[in-house]
Design a protein that fits this description.
With about 500 residues, the protein is α+β, with helices and mostly antiparallel strands. About 40% of the residues lie in helices and about 20% in strands. The protein contains 19 helices and 16 strands. The strands form three sheets. Strands 1-5-6-11-10-9-7-8 form an eight-stranded mixed beta sheet, sandwiched between helices. A five-stranded mixed beta sheet has the order 13-12-14-15-16, with helices on both faces. The protein has a three-stranded antiparallel beta sheet with strand order 2-4-3. α2 crosses α8 and α4 packs antiparallel against α5. The C terminus is likely disordered. The structure holds histidyl-adenosine monophosphate.
């Protein structure tokens, strides 16, 4: 029964509990297996990084970076937490040293704050010797404290809203360009975005993602990555899977920028009929208008120019080859010219996958090509493509279509009574667990009736009845709880019997 406690999981976060975690583990194991067959290895990057990494990679103007990141200042340990007023001079000098060494942000705001604080300090420093002050002195102290308060005394870090940026950072940091290319990596873990929580949308959510970095941009790579996600979903039996693909061209004057310009002109003509969000986006990011879900905007958007008709020759050829490659792999897709994605790093191929039972948050996977991202982050020119699956949504969809976790039970509940029986029960539990069975061994003696009741409540398949008599006779009783039938075994026979009827399904 749920109790109201003083502490509750923060809005948008939640506890994942058994038996549901059994399904999570099954999904993750399947991902590892399927991705392994495509030659991917696992990477586990940290969950916080410099905020600037995400600003650069995902884009400072995107919703994710501009509105949704959990950002904090990691205050330098080299600074006193609460300097006493007489120590402020030394404190300001310490801040200055960190500033010069680049250990706190070397920006105009910090520079100004330090300069002003130094000036104010020299104006009031003597007060602490003379112990007398005028109104102006107090004002100087007040200003001094305000300048100190405005300093950013550490680095800006953010909980990761996604992991592609981290994987590219790691590719550069570990010189992975020296490895045989391409490098294929996958990750599983929590991401953080301060979005409005609703079904399928959380502030801490989990992604299963994969990235292919380096080597060529052969369309076969795009197709193989997509084939891999589809294979994974197929293995899980995910229902109603639909794959949308698009190409958003690249950043050369005769490709996407020319299209965006044209789109902007057309959008200006219908501006009055669009909602406030779309009107704003005409200026900030016209492509994102195509993403709009507003009912009354749909007929207008349907008449806008389509990027597929404006790709440069190379991008058009690449897109055609990706479609051909998907065909060769038997991957069924739908072209969706409105699929533009909400992160800045994409070029050429973009794709999204939806599944059944998810309501409005029905994108279960998103991805695309991002050649140039590694270079943007300070690495060598590098091709890249990848995707991330929303694991929470994947699990929701599996549950909605009845593919939830098998109820968590026990294979064997050991109902023991008596000193001798307890010693035998401990050994039996050890042998059965070593053989891979889940066993519940009650820590204190229970009457048989009570023990069987508990065995039933725990969803046990069998109860092993061990009293002192059974132990001295070496004949153990196994009760099948579903029908109440009982059979007697010696210990080796018991193991053999259980091996033969070994339970299958998700257990942990
Ligand atoms: P994304 O489209 O932002 O792409 O996220 C990928 C998936 O994560 C979404 O399709 C959705 O299933 C899930 N997701 C996103 N936000 C939430 C949320 N608040 N709650 C629950 N699930 C969510 C990326 O993150 C890119 N890094 C994907 C990528 C990898 N592109 C190339 N490589």
């Amino acid at each position: 029964m749920a109790h109201k406690s003083k502490f509750q999981a923060i809005r948008g976060t939640r506890d994942l509990l058994p038996p549901e975690t059994g399904l999570w583990n099954h999904v993750e194991e399947t991902a590892r297996k399927v991705f392994g067959t495509f030659g991917f290895g696992e990477i586990r990057p940290p969950i916080f990084e410099p905020s600037e990494l995400f600003g650069r990679a995902v884009g400072g103007e995107t919703d994710i970076v501009a509105k949704e990141m959990y950002t904090f200042i990691d205050r330098s340990e080299k600074l006193a937490r609460h300097p006493r007023i007489g120590e402020l001079g030394a404190f300001i000098q310490a801040v200055k040293k960190l500033y010069d060494a680049g250990e706190i942000p070397r920006d105009a705001s910090n520079q100004l704050a330090i300069e002003h604080a130094e000036a104010k300090w020299s104006a009031v420093e003597n007060l602490f010797l003379e112990k007398e002050g005028t109104k102006a002195d107090f004002e100087n102290i007040y200003d001094l404290l305000a300048y100190i308060d405005s300093m950013q005394l550490g680095s800006n870090l953010s909980l990761r809203p996604e992991a592609t940026a981290s994987v590219c950072r790691a590719y550069i940091e570990h010189g992975m360009a020296q490895l045989p290319q391409p490098v294929k990596l996958y990750y599983i873990g929590p991401m953080f975005r301060r979005e409005r929580p609703q079904k399928g949308r959380y502030r801490q959510f989990y992604q299963i993602g994969a990235e292919v970095l380096g080597g060529s941009d052969a369309p076969a790579i795009d197709a193989e990555v997509i084939e891999m996600v589809m294979r994974f979903f197929d293995r899980l039996g995910l229902a109603g899977v639909e794959l949308d693909i698009n190409s958003i061209g690249h950043n050369a004057p005769d490709c996407r920028p020319a299209y965006v310009q044209k789109l902007k002109i057309e959008l200006e003509k219908v501006k009055d009929k669009l909602g406030a969000d779309s009107q704003r986006r005409i200026e900030t990011n016209p492509l994102r208008v195509l993403d709009s879900k507003l009912e009354h905007e749909q007929p207008i958007i349907a008449t806008l120019p389509r990027i597929a008709d404006h790709l440069c020759e190379e991008c058009a050829a690449h897109y055609a080859a990706v479609r051909r490659q998907l065909g060769l792999r038997g991957v069924i897709y739908k072209e969706n010219w409105r699929l533009v994605r909400g992160l800045d790093y994409y070029m050429r191929t973009t794709f999204e996958i939806t599944a059944k039972g998810l309501g409005s948050q029905n994108a279960v996977c998103g991805g695309g090509r991002y050649d140039g991202l590694v270079e943007l982050l300070g690495g060598p020119p590098t091709k890249g493509i990848g995707f991330a699956i929303g694991e929470d949504r994947l699990i929701l969809s599996l549950q909605e279509s009845g593919k939830g976790a098998a109820p968590q039970g026990r294979d064997v509940y050991i109902a023991w009574m008596g000193e001798h029986a307890y010693a035998a029960a401990i050994h039996a539990a050890k042998d059965l667990r070593n053989a891979g069975f889940s066993v519940e061994l009650p820590p204190t003696e229970l009457k048989f009736g009570k023990a069987l009741e508990r065995a039933d409540k725990l969803g046990s398949r069998y109860a092993l009845i061990l009293g002192d008599n059974e132990v001295s006779e070496g004949s153990w009783t196994l009760k099948t709880l579903a029908d109440g039938t009982q059979e007697k075994f010696t210990e080796p026979e018991l193991l053999e019997f259980l091996e033969n009827v070994r339970v299958s399904g998700v257990r942990s």
